[in-house]
Design goal:
With 270 residues, this protein is α/β, with parallel strands linked by helices. The protein has helices spanning 39-56, 70-80, 98-103, 108-130, 148-160, 189-201, 216-221, 251-259; strands spanning 4-11, 29-37, 86-93, 138-142, 178-181, 238-241. Helix 1 runs antiparallel to helix 2 and helix 4 packs across helix 5.
Length: 270
């Protein structure tokens, strides 16, 4: 049975000038998310988006979670968590990656590709462990100003010659199934946008939000993240680059991510 993976990100990929309390620049964090939907679930998800559009108002079709107000986002999260779906995400804190940034010559494209690889490793591991018929899914990225051909070649190279054990999970992924669309072409990217926004809201501190992060959206979505056999989400549904302690989070968010639980995966089907 074919499934589709929808991928989007929040934050940006810039390295050269990172925003801080005294100066503007690129976001210190970037979050990237994947939403895995089987065909029947795609129908239900499209129906949900249509229903929400009716409820939120026909005059303004939203494309991003940031187009909605707080209560609408919470409601969207609640309804999305009722779908038969799996969520995945990666969170990166750029100030800890100066050595890596230098190694890739401060290329935002290579940084994006690395985050995509980490995300697809999570997805591949889940698919391989749950149902062999779900491997090699169709993969749709939100279109942005990016060299997708280079990304496909990079992921294919890692798949063919994995250096680290976690990259073996890319065996479940066909890099050449990757396509890119914008939200006007593919409505379901709005789900991936919601999940990436939920992750980003947990870590993003700006003068506009007075340095106060928002975990409510992620709490509402938490039950649908992939988890290990004990229900732990970190390491299975969410990857911190490279570990939670490096994200420089406030204590409340740090504890929330550490304790985040979801339903363990179903038994593998053959």
């Amino acid at each position: 049975m074919a499934c589709t993976v929808f991928i989007d990100e929040s934050g940006d990929t810039g390295f050269t000038k990172i925003r801080n309390n005294s100066a503007g620049g690129s976001s210190p964090y970037m979050a990237m998310s994947a939403v895995v939907l089987q065909p029947a679930s795609q129908i239900a998800a499209r129906q949900l988006l249509d229903e929400l559009q009716e409820e939120f108002g026909k005059t303004k079709k939203w494309r991003h979670a940031t187009d909605l107000n707080h209560n609408q986002r919470v409601y969207f999260c609640k309804k999305a968590s009722e779908l038969n779906v799996r969520f995945f995400g990666v969170i990166s804190y750029k100030p800890t990656m100066r050595e890596y940034a230098s190694k890739i010559e401060w290329s935002p494209h290579k940084f994006y590709n690395k985050c995509a690889k980490y995300l697809l490793e999570l997805v591949g591991r889940y698919l391989a462990n749950v149902d062999e018929s779900l491997t090699e899914p169709r993969i749709v990225f939100e279109e942005r100003n990016h060299d997708y051909d280079a990304m496909i070649r990079y992921i294919a190279k890692v798949k063919d010659n994995p250096i680290y054990p976690q990259s073996n999970s890319l065996a479940a992924i066909n890099p050449f199934s990757i396509t890119r669309k914008n939200k006007d072409e593919e409505d379901l990217l709005r789900l991936a946008d919601l999940v990436s926004h939920a992750l980003y809201s947990c870590v993003n501190k700006t003068p506009d939000n007075f340095g106060i992060v928002e975990t409510r959206y992620l709490r509402e979505l938490s039950s649908k993240f992939a988890a290990d056999s004990s229900g732990r989400v970190l390491g299975s549904g969410i990857k911190c680059i490279h570990k939670l302690e490096e994200l420089s989070l406030d204590d409340e968010t740090n504890e929330f991510l550490k304790k985040m639980r979801a339903m363990p995966p179903p038994r593998k089907r053959h």
